[in-house]
Specification:
Order of helices and strands: H
Structural class: mainly alpha
Helix content: over 70%
Number of helices: 1
Oligomer: single chain
Largest sheet: none
Radius of gyration: 14 Å
Length: 34
Amino acid sequence: MTRSSMLIILLVTAIFVSILTSAWLLEPPAWGGF
């Protein structure tokens, strides 16, 4: 795996996690999260 592909994967993962986190905070699950 090349360095650039690792950076792209890290970037996509960071964006995905931030979207999930913001959605979680804006609209918590019905079962109350943790």
